[in-house]
């Protein structure tokens, strides 16, 4: 079965950086568009970034210029590099491939 396992979350100060990872199994990873979503307490889940199988990227306006997304098909892993983090980036971050979701990794941006 398909599994997506996120890691790399944690507590970081404003202005800091984190790199999230999502390791996939049970699918032909290189053929899938991969996405990152986030959900803050009391808010709806929102799309953050995506990377298609042919390298087309999307970034939410709120993260554009600060976040990057890239993948290593040999490792079946997609990454979200988050720089210049802000308190409003605090959320649970989820990896998504088609209808499959990971369990999430928590990011807290606070001084």
Main beta sheet: 7 strands, mixed
Q: What class do helices, strands and sheet pairing give? A: mainly beta
**SSE string:** EEEEEEEEEEE
Shape assignment: globular
The gyration radius over C-alpha positions equals 13 Å
Number of helices: 0
Proportion of β residues?
A: over 45%
Uncertain segments: none
- Tell me the helix content: under 10%
The tally of beta strands, per DSSP, is 11
What would the average pLDDT be, to the nearest integer?
97
**What is the end-to-end distance?**
40 Å
What this model shows, in words?
This protein has 111 residues and is mainly β. The protein is 0% helix and 51% strand. Strands 2, 4, 5, 6, 9, 10 and 11 form a seven-stranded mixed sheet that branches. The mean pLDDT is 97.
Q: Can you lay out the helices and strands and say which pair or pack?
A:
Blueprint: E1 3-7, E2 10-12, E3 18-25, E4 34-39, E5 46-51, E6 57-59, E7 67-72, E8 77-82, E9 91-97, E10 100-101, E11 105-109
Parallel strand pairs: 2-11
Antiparallel strand pairs: 1-3, 3-8, 4-5, 4-9, 5-6, 7-8, 9-10, 9-11
Features:
single chain; 111 residues; mainly beta; seven-stranded mixed beta sheet; four-stranded antiparallel beta sheet; 0% helix
Short description:
With 111 residues, the chain is an all-beta fold.
